[in-house]
Structures are given as C-alpha cells and as structure tokens.
Design brief:
By secondary structure, the protein is of the alpha/beta class. The chain contains nine helices and seven strands; from the N terminus they run βαβαβαβαβααβαααβ. Strand 4, helix 4 and strand 5 (131-136) form a beta-alpha-beta unit. It binds nicotinamide-adenine-dinucleotide.
C-alpha cells in the first residue's frame, strides 16, 4: 500500500493532484485548512477511483500543526511515501502598498509551510530510507511579477529550499523536486480581468492557460517509479512561458 499527502487539497491544483495520484494507485491524505466541504469532495473523488482517502485539517504555516499532521497521516493511513507541498496563497499589491502583514502571511504559508511539512515528512521518510518530496512553486519565481513581490519571494525560496533538501536527503534515498506551474485556471487566477487573461494567453507559446490536470500529471510523474533518478530539479509546467519572449 502506498500513501501520499497533498497539502491544500480542498480545490484547484491540490484536488487535481489528489485525483491523479489516486488514479496512479496511491492512497491520499487530503489536507485542508478551512474548506472541509471541498476536502470531502476531493476525498470522494479519490475513493471513487478505488483508493483510500482521509481528511486532515491543519494549517501548514504552523510548525506544531504540521508535526501533528504527519503523525496523524502515518497513524491513520500508514507510512508516508510522497508529500506534495501544494498549499499556497496570494496577497498581491505593489511594494509601496504591501503591508508587513501581507508579506508575513504569504511567506508563512507558502515558504514556512513548505519547511514545516517537509521537515516532519522527511523525518519519517529518513527512518525508512525512501520518499519523494514535491513542492509547488510558480513560474513567477523565475520571472518575477508586478504586484507579487511577496509571492515571488516565497516561490523562489521554495526552489532554494528544495535544492538544499535534495542534497541533504539523497543519502536517505529521498528525492526532492519542484513543479513550477505557469498560469493555471483555478480560483487563485479566477479574479484576473479578461483582458489580462487574453494578454497572458498571447504570451504563452502553447496558446492557452494551463489546467490543474496539466500540473497534476507532472506531479504524478515525479511521484512515480519512472522519476527515481531525478532530484533537485525544477520542472516548469507553463506552456513554454518561462522560455521568455523571442527578440
Ligand atoms: P487555490 O487557491 O485554488 O488552492 C490553494 C489551496 O491551498 C486551497 O485548498 C487552500 O485552502 C489551501 N491553503 C491555503 N492556505 C493554507 C494553509 N495555511 N494550510 C493548508 N492549506 C492551505 O490555488 P491553486 O491555484 O490550486 O494553487 C495551488 C498551488 O499552486 C499554490 O501553491 C499556488 O501558489 C501554486 N500555483 C498556482 C498557479 C495558478 O495559476 N493557479 C500558478 C503557479 C503556482
């Protein structure tokens, strides 16, 4: 039996990863912070594919809640093989209008949350000398974006953090990689005005915004047997956006 944990799995990319991993044969620990209804729906989708799913409430920005999360997942579902560090938020604003509170909260959830959950998950995986850590960053970690200094910093931080983990944990048979999505159609990008979406679409070589399923396929690959020799890498899933414009 193989168990994975997806943080922030009540909707969007986290839900799609849960479903795709279930399809690939994993039992899924569905983490959520507040949206219990959404998490129940994710669990239902996993179960409809014949896999086990359990709900685990917990705020990833809390070191202690993250410790309890990993403990509870292993108690209820068994040894954790794969962790998908997906939970994330935005609090956008130009630097001069960005409050300290908005800076702190985005860094706390997106970057400290990755540290918190990865740390406790890695502790469990080290004992068994195997495991996969997959963190969801963003294309803007590589390119920057106006109005997202806090978000870009948190997502760039994830890349450095995961590369350090890849080196530290390789001797324990644990790999650590990053998936960097481009613009994906979820609640997070729902509020963008149509004009912005149209301009964005024009800047994407493949000519469309991504879907949560596009990201989930890459995550499933990194969780599977076929990626055993890949660690410390950043895999953009962005329709070619991060290649930059032709000059
Ligand atoms: P979303 O807002 O639809 O989902 C985010 C999920 O994280 C939700 O389930 C939310 O409840 C959960 N969450 C938020 N704070 C949490 C906390 N403190 N503890 C536990 N869970 C928490 O967003 P999404 O588009 O599905 O994004 C998922 C991940 O992908 C995020 O890390 C996001 O930064 C990243 N990403 C998204 C896009 C995009 O275009 N949508 C692009 C690049 C990267």
């Amino acid at each position: 039996m193989s168990v994975c944990l997806v943080t922030g799995a009540s909707r969007g990319i986290g839900r799609a990863c849960s479903v795709e991993l279930a399809r690939a044969g994993w039992d899924v620990a569905v983490n959520y912070s507040r949206d219990e209804e959404g998490a129940i729906e994710t669990a239902r989708l996993v179960q409809s594919l014949g896999r086990r799913a359990s709900l685990f409430r917990g705020d990833v920005s809390s070191h202690e809640e993250s410790r309890v999360l990993i403990e509870n997942v292993e108690r209820e579902l068994g040894p954790l093989d794969v962790v998908v560090l997906n939970a994330g938020i935005t609090k956008d604003g130009l630097l001069m209008r960005m409050s300290e509170e908005d800076w702190d909260r985005v860094l706390d959830v997106n970057l400290k949350g990755v540290y918190n959950v990865a740390k406790w998950a890695a502790r469990a995986m080290m004992r068994r000398r195997s495991g996969r850590i997959i963190a969801i960053s963003s294309v803007v970690a590589l390119t920057g974006n106006i109005g997202q200094a806090n978000y870009c910093a948190s997502k760039a931080g994830i890349i450095g953090f995961v590369r350090a983990l890849a080196r530290e944990l390789s001797r324990y048979g644990i790999t650590a990689n990053v998936v960097a999505p481009g613009y994906i159609q979820t609640d997070m990008t729902e509020h963008l005005p149509n004009e912005v979406k149209e301009n964005l679409t024009r800047s994407i070589p493949l000519g469309r915004l991504g879907t949560p399923e596009d990201v989930a396929s890459a995550v499933s690959f990194l969780a599977g047997k076929g990626s055993a020799y890949i660690t410390g890498q950043v895999l953009p899933v962005d329709g070619g956006m991060s290649m930059g414009a032709l000059t």
